[in-house]
Amino acid sequence: MTTRLFGEPVQRREDPRLITGRGRYLDDLGAGALAAAFVRSPHAHARILDVDVSDALDVDGLVAIYTWEDLPGALAEPLPLLIPHPALTHGRTAYPLAREIVRHVGEPVVMVVARDRYLAEDACALIRVGYEVLKPVVGLEEAAGGAHLVHDDVPGNIGAHLVQEVPGPGGETAREAVDAAPHRLEFRLDVERSACTPLEGKGVYARWDADDASLRVYSSTQTSTSVRMAIAAKLGLPLPKVEVVAPDVGGGFGVKIVHPWPEEILVPWAARLLNRELKWTEDRREHFVSSSHERGQVQHVRVGFDDDGRLLGLEVEILHDHGAYTPYGIIVPIITSTQLLGPYKVGAYRVEFSSVYTNTVQVTPYRGAGRPQGVFCMERTMDKIAAYLGRDRTEVRAANFVQPDEFPYDQGLTFQDGRPLIYDSGDYPEALRMLKELIGWDSFPEEKARAAAEGRRIGIGVGCYVEGTGVGPYEGGHVQITSDGRVHVSTGLTSQGQGHETVFAQIAATELGVPIERVSVVTGDTRRFGYAVGTFASRAAVMSGNAIALACRKVREKALRIAAEALEADPRDLEITDGMVHVAGAPSASIPLATVAVLSNPLRYAFDEEAKRATQFAGPASDDRPPVAEGEEPGLEGRDYYSPVRSTFAAGMHAAIVETDPDTAEIRILRYAVVHDCGRLINPMIVEGQIHGGVAQGVGGALYEKMVYDEHGQLLNASFMDFLMPYATEIPRIETAHLETPSPLNPLGIKGAGEAGVIPVSAVLAAAIEDAEGIPIDRMPISPSDLHTLRRSR
Amino acid sequence: MKPPPFDYHRPATLGEALDVLAEAGPGGKVLAGGQSLIPLLNMRLAAPARVVDVNRVPGLDGIEAGPSGVRVGALARHAAVERSPGAAAAQPLLRQALRLVAHPVIRNRGTVVGSLVHADPAAEMPAVLALLGGAVRLASLDGEREVPAAEFFTGPMESAARPGELAVSAFFPALPARSGTAFHEVARRHGDYAVAGVAAAVTLDDDLRISAARVACVSVGPVPVVADVTAVCGPRPAASVAWDAVAAAVRDLVEPEGDIHATADYRRHLTGVLAVRALRDAASAAHGEES
Ligand SMILES: Cc1cc2nc3c(=O)[nH]c(=O)nc-3n(C[C@H](O)[C@H](O)[C@H](O)COP(=O)(O)OP(=O)(O)OC[C@H]3O[C@@H](n4cnc5c(N)ncnc54)[C@H](O)[C@@H]3O)c2cc1C
């Protein structure tokens, strides 16, 4: 039994439970609870004239019907705008239930509570809402044209407009640098909408305890602490009387960091009002039309470069579609604008985005959060430069890399955390070398020629990215060793399947020198840890991982102090191995951590044999010192926080070989290779799993998934029959290699890994298809039908 | 995504099933594998007053294969027919097509006959029945009737089965000696309904020249589009057929529509490509049978 577990491919401890059906997801809870269902707008843009519930009143089992008029106090106000920004001059959020106007299909208008979900839906079907249909605004360019407005008081539909500029080395503007460059290119790129689509949708289950005047809420959320604060504020409850628990959560990918969702405050409110347990489980159609989407952008690029393909100036104009509301601010286009730079030095840079309203589902971060679009932009630019100069695509990239000796490297921009965009560490030339070797880049031309001789079309593509991970402000960890020798770790951020129970236990086991079997981890339960931000931005390992390590170090120090006294040794000579504190080199002089835990808590009462040791007549305690020394606390526990100065920057490079069918235009991925650098690896197996999942989502976004809105603002493919999330059968085997450049910013030297896999996939596959076909690919996703159309129009 | 209220019946005999269906009339719906009906109910796209679950009715799950063809009972699952050696020997196209129907778990529940009655123009089994000139046997309190494929598929999701009728079996005829079949399709993901697909049957004469060639195309019309291409293909050995002309002929016969997954032009193009692939494979299968 080893205790040095950091860096080992420990099997995921949560899996036996999750894959044998013993997970407890939101809908597994509250079997007897009442059910909520919602009447949602069938129109993209309309004025509500009246709501007629008379027919619904006949439904046996109906409990309550609510509209906006019923909502009291703060509940009747618009939902919070979570991340304000000075450039977001016209931020707008929805009401929990629509007030007068609906602005996208799926917006909740009426809430129904009934004995079960079947009856609640029956009642919904009988409620008649009268609408005056207004002109819908659909499509980015149409919205930016401003002929019709999503919000009457938002001229031109522009919610935010932001320009960031970094002058070139000689102080020249991007415009000047591009104009003066020996070579110039100008082009337009399009990325369509997709969405997180976790297999478990959202869900909320609330229990009001009238005797205790307290509320317990379970939510399928990425942030239980912040949902708790939102509920307390919206319902006017004292914070200590509200508990929020994230149970097992079947995927989030960003959509569940948005909060409070209307249902997250309406369900607790109604549960309290009715004094009945109440649950709402989102169904798939609801998820498509009333959660969040992402990705949709149009980009205009102007780039100037020299004969070696070195960038001298880059100008990017982005039109970003944020849907009907902006509860999460403009984080997505900010990330696109800044992370677009990737591992490169671009000379002078100017990026401008307009974030516009449309009568569609709101846009908030989805795994990758604006980076896939930014990387698509930059990597397409690199490929176009290479094609223009007739140079190898990897050479052009290498010519622009930030070099290993240039870290920390300041890109001169402001990142999503409001801090300067400074890369902490990395080794991009080495990553590229590893990738080329892994995929066989240099021998590919022969392979391609051989295939061509057989009438087959194959192509190769490459894409690089840098990802700011582990954004602040902070996370905390609490570690307690109880007198049975068990180690209880808790942190406030939540888990959605990433493997936190395993990696946090690895960190604790390593720091404390205990067997991992003795460590248990709780996340996302405000009863255990009240201060947290949440799980997003590839931050859990960096933030909570470091906080837990720091908390463990406090506990370890205390344990050594107490053990030293008991062993009459110097704490500096002590080590902990397999849960035993012992003198280094003298294992016989030892004391179990369990006993240290007993000794840490002076007792008056003995309730078992172990406890006797800590009672007042048990030992030779000194008479002139208080049992709990000054500055000490009873118990063997510690709490600490990790708050970074700024983000840490992970990086990676992907390459793919695809085959396109000359007749059917089908696109098949033959090989997919990933070189990934997330600093020190806590668990390489889990990192690989994260990469695999990310690449799978990336393949979805590149070849299968899009949100198809018609001109009326109806989402035409709001089901898994027509929204084509890839199956396992569509995902290639993924070959991975790891590079470890530790982060100098945090004690463990780690960087985030959660989102990475998805980021460059569209860029890589576009490049490979372009290479196979010899047709520029400037719009993603691409389907066989799209490729056929491109071939026809050549 | 919960169904509206309905009465649930689970008859124990065929007679009982027909009684309930007669009583229910247009408000009755047969529940077989449920792989299409349950989603329709859950999305409230169908609201039958009565659902008649025939899964407990004995004697409906037969798969009888003989020299003249294969009779498939109403409760024979896709998977059972796919795995039946007798069915594969008598009519190889069944297995070739069933491998393309959905995923294994869905094939474990879904029924071949249910798929015929459901009459999705993108589905494989209606095309197979249409290509082979098979028939569906319908039972009601008035007795039984046999409806040939050409009359059975009346429109998208519409069949000749009337209220009160239960489809008890379907018959897929065997082909003459020196015949071969194949099914080629393009689906967006494995197991999805096809963007376009073509089933083909080819018969060779004594000199191994093509003497009969037929295709049935899915997803390019309201019902499976059957085309006889014997004139363009034969009487020639497969190796000397002008396949481009065959593709063009098939493309001219179909009138696909565009949707969110594919343009009409792509579907038409694809149907030509797949028709040639299926016909060539069918011809070599016919050769293989000869040798
Ligand atoms: C994810 C998914 C993918 C699929 N992909 C494909 C595919 O690629 N190709 C394909 O062909 N199918 C596909 N299907 C459909 C599947 O093959 C269904 O099983 C089939 O269409 C219907 O068979 P069933 O037994 O499930 O019928 P049910 O769902 O029980 O019934 C379907 C309809 O037929 C009627 N019906 C059924 N049996 C009888 C009967 N004996 N007499 C009278 N009426 C009857 C019902 O009343 C109902 O209207 C897919 C289904 C799913 C869920």
TrEMBL record, chain A:
This is Dehydrogenase. Residues 20-135 form the Aldehyde oxidase/xanthine dehydrogenase a/b hammerhead domain. The lineage of its organism: Bacteria, Bacillati, Actinomycetota, Actinomycetes, Streptosporangiales. PANTHER family: ALDEHYDE OXIDASE 1-RELATED, XANTHINE DEHYDROGENASE. It comes from Microbispora amethystogenes. The keyword Oxidoreductase applies. Residues 615-640 are annotated as: Disordered. Keywords: Molybdenum, Oxidoreductase. Pfam families: Ald_Xan_dh_C, MoCoBD_1, MoCoBD_2. The keyword Oxidoreductase applies.
From TrEMBL, chain B:
Keywords: FAD, Flavoprotein, Oxidoreductase. SUPFAM superfamilies: CO dehydrogenase flavoprotein C-terminal domain-like (SSF55447), FAD-binding/transporter-associated domain-like (SSF56176). Residues 1-177 form the FAD-binding PCMH-type domain. SMART domains: CO_deh_flav_C. It comes from the Bacteria. PROSITE patterns: FAD_PCMH. It holds the Pfam family FAD_binding_5. The keyword DNA-binding does not apply. InterPro entries: CO_DH_flav_C, CO_DH_flav_C_dom_sf, Diverse_Substr_Oxidored, FAD-bd_PCMH, FAD-bd_PCMH-like_sf, FAD-bd_PCMH_sub1, FAD-bd_PCMH_sub2, Mopterin_DH_FAD-bd. This is Carbon monoxide dehydrogenase. The lineage of its organism: Bacteria, Bacillati, Actinomycetota, Actinomycetes, Streptosporangiales.
